[in-house]
Request: fold
Amino acid sequence: MGTVMYNSEWDSLELDGHELQSGDKVEISIFGYWIPGQIALDTSGWHLLTPDQVEIRLHSGLTARHSERGISPTPQFHPVEMNAPHILIVDDDPVLLHALPQTISLRIPEAKIDITDSAQDALEQIRKYQYDTIVSDIKMPGMDGLELLARIRELRPGTPTLLVTGHGEHDVAIQALRGGAYDYILKPIDRDYFVAALRRAIQTQLLQRQVIEQQLALELHAKLLEGLVQQQTHELFDAHATKDKTIRILSHALKTPLTHLKEMTQLLRLKLGLKLEGTNTLEMVSQGLADIEHSLGQVEKLVQELLHTSRIETAAFILHRQDCDLVELCGHVLEEYVASTCYALSCESLREPIEVEVDEDRISQLIISLLSTAQMNSTQGSPVTVMLQQTERRAMITVSYSGSPPRLGMEFYISRKIVEQHGGRLEVQSVPENRSTYFIMLPYRIGPVEEQTDKVKQIQSTQALWTVTA
Reply:
């Protein structure tokens, strides 16, 4: 763990004395949590690109560490270890250079302390590390404390620097404060005052880092919100497209029954107006009303389908799933279907059960809907076959018939959405010789015993075949 440093001379970033390259995996600390990402450089500068493609600006002073090699960054957050204050003491007096670290260690035992007796050596240390506080004597041979302070302001702006000056040198002390020193310490050094000033300087540096973290957190939050807005905008466009598609399908579906209603109304008006001789008016009116009632039933059905579509698109369409045998479910549905019609049902083969987790009512309605459509479009006298089989890890129901190709209107759209909410697919295929087939593919449930068997061996298919004839 170290501090990110920006080298303006080379336009580069450094961490722990090593130059960072684009693509390096690092983690930065924001509000006590490690945020992983990769180093990226573009025209706007250096960034950390997080796994969710959010860019965070990088600059000097950020607490960071290298990610473990061989492990891709994941959006996980780990608590940051509490940083011990890092202090640099610069003084050419060996007595003070020995006494000051001892005083700090007694009062601030968690502090890490570096010492040097040369301002030039201090600059080398400052280039390598981000210190929380720097303590320097003013009067030193070569580069003095005031000149060192000016260089610190260039290399590490914002780092609190305490300057030690002799007793009575008030002009020098004032010059130090004007030069940007955080505080000045008079000789002989009062240990209590020195430690108190040092603690204030460390706290100031900590607050500055917290401000930086807050700015980064706000930037990260703003970019996450921007991404969320873009995602929801895209979903809104998709919703509008779905709405437009639904309106087109509904308009086309309503056109036929409404046209029929209009024609029957005009015909009744014409017949009643002319009062043609030999016409059984009562029979004609009765037949017309029956046709109108049938058309109204179609409109009512379309309205109900539109309501189902609205519920599906707004996630208000709730499935009540439960474990069941799909073979048994299909058998009951077909038996009830033929019982309410004049059709005959035969079952050629029936083997092992197929365990699935579905909403029985929805799947039953789906099968009846497809079967009714197939029966309506099939050639007179030709059978409709329903086959149930199990292949690998899914169950498949097919409804086949010979006749006119199916019209993929609102009812088919709703049926497909129901199957998709079960994690399956609904498809329709028409082949030459007027043969059409609906395919319902559903995932099935595998018991724990079957999971432990040889996975290479495929599960044997189970089939059931029903034939519905007029």
User: Anything to note?
Assistant: The two ends are 80 Å apart (CA to CA). The chain has four domains: 2-82, 86-189, 235-313, 322-469. Residues 86-189 form a domain with the Rossmann fold fold (CATH 3.40.50.2300).
